Amino acid sequence: MPQYIYLLLAAEKIGASLLCRDNTLQENVEAVSQSGAKAIFAHDYLKQHELDAYLSDSHTERAVLVSPLISGSYDAMPDYIQAVIDGLYSHTPANGSRTMNWNDFLVLGESYDGVVEAPADFNRPLLRAYTSGSTGPSKQVIHSAHTMIGVIHQMNFYGSQGGFRASWMVTCLPPCLVAVVAAMDLMPLASDKYLILNPFCGLDDVDLEMMRYRPNCWPLLPLFADVLVNSERIPDDYDMSHLFAAGVGCESYNNGQLARMQKFMNDHKCQARLTVGYGCSESGSNVSLPMTPHPIGNGNSGIPLPLTTISVFKAGTDEELTYNQFGEICISGPGLMLGYDNPEATADTLKVHKDGMTWLHTKDIGYMNEDGVVYVLTRGHAPRFGGGDTATLPMENRLADAKIEGIKDEFFVLAPDEEHSGCFLPYLFVVLEDGYTTESIEDSVRACLDPYMYPVSIFTLQQRPFYHYKTNRLGMSRELHSFQQAACA
What we know:
489 residues, 23 strands, four-stranded mixed beta sheet, five-stranded antiparallel beta sheet, 14 helices
């Protein structure tokens, strides 16, 4: 909501920092408690027991409650947006002497006649956001005005309007993700886009919102792309040429996903080439852009942003590798976080190399070719007992490129090998066409993989599962781990 942007700019002005958290109540309360926050801002559909949990911390003095309708007209909203907002309220809304609404908060500020501005310091903590938690425990990342501007400055030409003001729509995405704040909210504002904030669109209704607003730019995530491709509400003759920039971020996209989405766009007259980039919360968002003549696919994530240096090192060291050698992708540039809220984790991730530069060790594995194009293949090493590294994206691309009859979608999930410490086992999940079974595709799957890539088991799904807009590999891995333990027992 726009009120969040007001708060961010105000916090910078008075020398405060904002902590954003949007997860379970327990995790949210813990984050507020650890921060020592004096005030919290929440939507006015906050429940009383939730408010009580926050205010039980002695540091928190006040809760400012903001209506989702403060910047919108309920009657002007389509029924599916109204239904989402209506469903958020309960019979026990938060209230009490330690609450106030947004308008009263503004009046309190207008009546204050003391000094409010702090000395300018663009390097102090300003935004405390969280990683998505899709690949491991969610971590708090701390950014300053300088680190966010470092990202915005390098991206503000993106989606250049060519003589008119391009529209930029943001659906569903909360400001607890730094990429949303820097690259999806502040960057389009800084480059004079018409920003459409659309926070209360249901995840399954992004297809309707695309057709309603017809945006020129729309940050696509794997979940959104999946909704579009599988939508039965988008007419066959729908003209999608309004979309000038089309890219899918947030996680590696395999060749099959790229081909399906590109075909969907072409079938609907969209002239944009589907692209992917690379980045992370620790780097403030994007660190690469898909400005490359090399074909999109096989992990191609484009070239580094203008002020960003990307290189590949032997994992965990400052031993730099040469072109086309697999190693840990590391980043140096103006968008790097100040650190985590955990000093030990910060020291393990931000390291000063012998070149005197500070490098972010991402733990992502990939390589760079002679033209400076970055290829991102997997996260961390996953050796299989007996030899071979089970990098998920290359394995998925083998299957996608084979175009195996009957497979609509596929992805690998790795689970720890219970019998061999430090090793992993690959499991394959597939969405099949009607009439096909795992037995009917198994031989074709094995035919296009090396022996160390063979899946231990193949499981069928009705559709790809998502968590925080990405493929829910972590959740599936936990289920596999439990399955393994039960089998061993």
